[in-house]
Design brief:
The chain is α/β, with parallel strands linked by helices. Helix content is about 40%, strand content about 20%. The radius of gyration is 19 Å and the shape is globular.
Length: about 280
Amino acid sequence: MPAPQVLEQTTEPLQRDIQISLSGVRKQFGRKGFVAVDGISIDLQKGEFFVIVGPSGCGKTTLLRMLAGLERQSAGIIDIRQFERSRPANSMIFQGDSLFPWMSVYDNAAYGLRMRHVNKAEIAATVRLWLERIGLWQFRELYPHQLSGGMRQRVSIVRAFANDPEILLMDEPFSALDEQNKLLLHEELLRIWEATKKTVVFITHSVEEAVTLGDRIMIMTASPGRSKAVIDVPLTRPRHVLELRQNPVFGDLVVHIWEQLRDEVLRARQSESGKGT
């Protein structure tokens, strides 16, 4: 894995309240290799919950890794404004289980703070606050193998929020969970986000999840990943998951997004079938 990229900072001030700006971003692996992302241009507001949906292999994760500084763009500009230099620029929650198996719940939650050399008293207070907030304080001495999948993802969320980043990058964090746990974690995430108003970039394959969580949704094309549409979600906040499902606007928006996404999913499948022949 390459060393984390120091993302370009703007030489001219970004428009007020814009935290992330992408202009013509392209990622190609090798000089004549596979193009994963092509020509992405978008501005994200500070405190926005921005969701990306697209077919498998369309470059969603590659785009997120570029935002995290784990990949370098081949072309284009990524500008990220850090409003408070005392806080980390971003934290990332990965798909599946990313906890350290040799660490307890408490130590996993404290990991980012310790890496920043925060004093012990502040770490203890912060970790307790977040573990209590998400209902895991009584499990603080357990290890990941002793937890359910849903509980492990809750610890991952605590670890990210406790580190107090300006931007939270989430790569299909709930994809491996059953529907009941997903609904519970949607409620938890919405509640925490309402309290913190962090800038979030969230990747998902689920249109329903995108509409439940997002302020705006970017639909990506089949490979190479381009922006097909960016759609506003006109649902008021705070949101409650079960109430949303009864709102006709929710259902109409899910259908509208799926109609645009369906052709891209079919194109991606046809491309994969062609590779296999």
